[in-house]
Amino acid sequence: MQHSLTISTRQQADVLERVLRVTRHRGFLVQSMQIEQFNDQEQSGYRIELSVTSERPIEHLTNQLVKLFDVEQVQLTQLQAVASPKAAIA
């Protein structure tokens, strides 16, 4: 399954490394990643658009990402089935 997430974080030097580490440790493969820095009157941070694939439930990843200290919000923006190469053989 392919999933797209939008993650809002505080602006900390190592927050991107932590997001990627949790993603890898939960068994998800990063297909694409887009990072946008934002600054407004109340706060500054990053908006991360992350596209991942895995056969594991996406909740395994989202539940861990929201536990990271600098992560403020995680939104599942897209859910898409990806055909497995093994399925074409059978």
Explain the layout of strands and helices.
Layout: E1 2-10, H1 15-25, E2 29-39, E3 44-53, H2 58-65, E4 71-80, H3 85-89
Antiparallel strand pairs: 1-3, 1-4, 2-3
Pfam family, one: ACT_5
Protein name: Acetolactate synthase small subunit
Keywords: Transferase
Describe, in plain words, how this protein is organized in 3D.
This protein is an alpha+beta fold and 90 residues long. The chain has a single domain (2-82), classed as Alpha-Beta Plaits (2-Layer Sandwich), CATH 3.30.70.260. 27% of the residues lie in helices and 44% in strands. The chain has helices spanning 15-25, 58-65, 85-89; strands spanning 2-10, 29-39, 44-53, 71-80. A 4-stranded antiparallel β-sheet has the order 2-3-1-4, with helices on one face. A hairpin with a 4-residue loop joins strand 2 (29-39) and strand 3 (44-53). The radius of gyration is 14 Å and the shape is globular. The two termini are 19 Å apart. The model has no long low-confidence stretch (mean pLDDT 90).
